[in-house]
Amino acid sequence: MSVRDPILHSVPIAELRPTQMTVGYREVAAKRKRWREVADKDREAFLGSHMIPVLLGPKKRRYVIDHHHLTRALQEEGVESVFTTVVADLHHLEKDAFWVVADHRAWVHPYDAHGVRRDVGDMPKRIEDLGDDPFRSLAGELRRAGGFAKDTTPFSEFLWADFLRRHIKRKDVKDDFSDALDEAMELARSKDASYLPGWSGPHEG
What we know:
The chain is of the alpha/beta class.
């Protein structure tokens, strides 16, 4: 292997730690469906092309900084290990310093299912402990429907989720997701959403 090739680290999902508090369970379900469509012979290649970016934190624990939904979906599908790639080695830092650095680099999103910022000490310790934020599912579906463009801003879909949370009732999202998506589409094209990453402009006509 040449030095240019990435070193793949196969790590048990059970040992990975989240850097956010929630996922959208509908998003997880969609990714589970996608995994089931991958032929057995192609699954290792799929995992190799979907490496999970992590921080190496105190005690050399691996903290996931992206692809929480995919990791959760794979775990629910019975996949025990994934390939990870270390984005930053911060294992020499004390725990408090680690979280400060992660926060300033936008590698952590300590907001609960109601959009309330919490102490990093409340962060789930395991991928399987991530809670459900239905507005994160709504934001993901809104992006796929063309409501806003994919953006490199960290946690951009959580920003959209928080915006939608302020305008749509949680009960409406849970009771009639399709209607909630229609409402979200209207909101996404409004000037009220113009501050959000990937905003596509006001609706014409």
